[in-house]
Amino acid sequence: MSDTFDVAIVGGGVVGAAIARELSRYDLKVVLLEKAADVARGTSGKNSGVVHTGINVPTGSVKAKLNVAGAEMFEDLCADLDVPFKRCGKTIVALSEAELPDLESLMARGVANGVRDLEIIDSATLKRMEPNIEGAAALNVPTAAIVCPYSLNIALAESVIENGAEIRLNSPVTAISGTEGSFELTTPGGIISAGLIVNSAGLFSDKVARMTGVHRWRIWPCRGEYLILDKSKGHLINGMVYPVPPKGGAGLGIHITPTTDGNILLGPSADYTNDAEDVRTTGKIRRQLLTEAAEFLPQLSPRDVITAYSGMRPKLVPSKVGGFGDFVIEEVEEAPGVMQLVGIESPGLTASPAIAEQVSAWVRDKIPAQGKADFVSKRTSIPRLRDEPLELREARIQKDGDYGEIVCRCEMVTRKEITESIKNGLGATSLNAIKYRSRATMGRCQGGFCGPRVVDLLIEAGHPPESLTLNGGESWLFMGTTEDLRAERKAERTGAK
Q1: Do residues 246 and 321 touch, judged by C-beta distance below 8 A?
Q2: CATH number, domain 387-467, options 1.25.40, 3.40.710, 1.10.10, 2.120.10
Q3: Tens of pLDDT along 45-79?
Q4: pLDDT (tens digit, 9 = 90+) per residue, 123-167?
């Protein structure tokens, strides 16, 4: 592989992957450098999966413009990449009449930002739309949608590979030197040379900026915890349910969000932390999320929760200051040849295709390039037997018996889906890499039944047990074999004598 490229993109989240895919349309040598063992392991894979309409961002801001533009592009993008997308709509609920002016302000902002079909509905209409939700009134936002965020990130990355660009996992950038046209990026795998750099490092974008000599920004990590409800409770809501956003808060409040896979999410919380990788979950926040969500959805029970997770927002505004921080997407005078993307938090997922087009235009202004005649825009996901009609399932099983063996009972994931996930184009083979491609281990038992079988399939595919990890790095699944343990104990006994 060559180590010289026209463009090096730092960060394999949804924005970085979208930029790499957009650039792969042209005759450019592009590499995407991701520090983790897989894409979608940071903010991009641990969020609500909401395709925002632009109703919550200040009119005229960079966020507002790119949010609305990205939302318009999103459905077609998901169709091209064969990624789950659902326009389920959203209601922003006022618990009391005192919050009605807030709904009116939100509606006025949405109209100013170009959001279509907004209306304020009364409690009776809300009940018809969402029979289980309590509220005095609501703002109905029918164009809001949901997507599977990690599936989108993975699909973008696979499209990047198919179209001739490179993705290098386990490749954190530790130093940057040089100038426009001749940058050098230091990684554990060696030096990468690039004419241009795109800093899309998310939670670490301020650190990457400093490597290029820019000290303008600081990222303030803000942890958001979520609860995942069992699919048996998926019927409780029809669309997203949001509260009126808290004034001066770090987020949009605790919301209730369906997923494209049939679960419901509660969250996120908003807690600033000094550690960008502190993604623990806590009993305190679990209780808080359940209590606040129950104000809108009284039927909730702690027994409905199957697991919890948390993700980080890369905020540009510290908690003591609060308020709005806009996206930074610019080439600054201290570092010509570097496009700095800093503070790309929500609605970064929604804005990603629009951001990609903007950055692609910047690159092509610097390096004129012809479009590829053979660019492949369409991608096909691994078929999911659970989503298909019975006659198609039977046909698949007749053609390939591996579709007839259910490995993950909770999520109805077949052996075929897991083996195809193991063969992914990025070469990611941790247990979580297979989880996010197949949904095995994501159900009620959280891998209690299928986890060992997934490990067996990885070993059958040629991955030695001692190489297997939960999430890459040193998250080893096994410490050794029973034979090793017996030998160690025998040696200890012999030594003792």
Answers
A1: no
A2: 1.10.10
A3: 999 999 999 998 999 999 999 999 999 999 999 99
A4: 999 999 999 999 999 999 999 999 999 999 999 999 999 999 999
Active site residues: 52
Strands of the 50-51 sheet, one edge to the other: 50-51, 145-147, 85-86
Q: Determine the pLDDT at residue 298.
A: 93
198 contacts: CB under 8 Å, gap ≥ 6: 7, 8, 9, 10, 16, 19, 338, 339, 341, 359, 363
| Distance from C-alpha of 398 to C-alpha of 414, rounded to nearest angstrom | 14
Q: What CATH number does the domain located at 1-84+146-218+321-381 have?
A: 3.50.50.60
Counting as low any pLDDT under 70, the low residues of the chain are 1, 248-252, 496-497
Under a CB-based contact definition with an 8 Å cutoff, are residues 70 and 355 in contact?
yes
DSSP secondary structure string for all residues of 315-366: ESS-TTT-S----EEE--TTSTTEEEEE---TTHHHHHHHHHHHHHHHHHHH
Q: Domain 85-145+220-315 carries which CATH code?
A: 3.30.9.10
Judge residue 110's burial from the number of C-beta atoms within 10 Å of its C-beta, 0-12 exposed, 13-18 middle, 19 or more buried.
Answer: buried
pTM over 0.70: yes
Q: How do the domains of the chain map onto residue ranges?
A: 1-84+146-218+321-381, 85-145+220-315, 387-467
Nearest Cα to Cα of residue 157 among 8, 14, 356: 14
Rounded CA-CA distance 450/445 in Å is 9
Taking the C-alpha atoms of residue 447 and residue 454, their distance in angstroms, rounded to an integer, is 9
Diameter of the chain by CA atoms? 84
Tell me the two tokens of residue 111.
Answer: 């109209």
pLDDT of residue 496: 60
Q: What is the DSSP letter of 393?
A: H
